[in-house]
Design a protein that fits this description.
- This protein is α/β, with parallel strands linked by helices.
- The chain has a single domain, classed as Rossmann fold (3-Layer(aba) Sandwich).
- Helix 3 links the parallel strand 3 and strand 4.
- Helix 2 crosses helix 5.
- The longest helix is centred in the last third of the chain and has 16 residues.
- The chain is globular.
- The protein binds iron/sulfur cluster.
- Iron/sulfur cluster (SF4) binds next to helix 4.
Length: 178
């Protein structure tokens, strides 16, 4: 990206150039809308992240959408029971691509303390995860760190992968935030 007007504050608007890839990735990260749902105690921290003290709207995320069809970010906040798993998968399927997933907290990432038959041992058993956030529960600052890490990841997405979006995603590309 290059910026014209090297003289500085002359009042001229100058010229900014960037690639289509950069522009689209930038737009995607600055208007990422999370889906409005929570599964357990981690959801309280997620709600707090959205409230005035932390204010997630600073990142273009002022509205959590109540419909998966208007969302492109799924924040799995809490443990996922086997009974709930098909519902979470259906919500993911109803989100339009491109879409991303954050596993918030130990339960969503790996089952946490619930090592039993009723709880999924990680939501990646049913949906692809982009960022895992450690903690029980993670604080709002950690969730914001996870979201900004996801933004960095999206900014590196390649135009050549857009046509096959979803198929080119690999589990080993997921990032762990502590
Ligand atoms: S990670 Fe901890 S706070 Fe989050 S859902 Fe599990 S038990 Fe609750």
């Amino acid at each position: 990206m290059g910026v014209g007007n090297p003289e500085g504050k002359s009042g001229a608007l100058g010229i900014a150039t960037m690639t289509l890839e950069q522009a689209v990735n930038w737009a995607r990260t600055r208007a990422m809308w999370p889906m409005l749902f929570g599964l357990a105690c981690c959801a309280i921290e997620m709600m707090s992240t959205q409230a005035s003290r932390y204010d997630m709207s600073r990142f273009g995320m002022e509205l959590m959408r109540a419909s998966p069809r208007q969302s492109d970010l799924m924040i799995v906040a809490g443990r996922v029971s086997r009974k709930m798993a098909p519902v979470v998968r259906r919500l993911y399927d109803q989100m339009p691509a491109p879409k991303w997933v954050i596993a918030m907290g130990d339960c969503a990432s790996c089952g946490g303390v619930f090592n039993n038959y009723a709880i999924l041992q990680g939501v990646d058993e049913i949906v692809p995860v982009d960022v895992y956030i450690a903690g029980c529960p993670p604080r709002p600052e950690q969730l914001m760190h996870g979201i900004l890490t996801l933004h960095e990841k999206v900014m590196k997405e390649k135009i050549s992968d857009w046509a096959t979006w979803g198929q080119s995603r690999k589990k080993q590309d997921a990032i762990v935030v502590e």
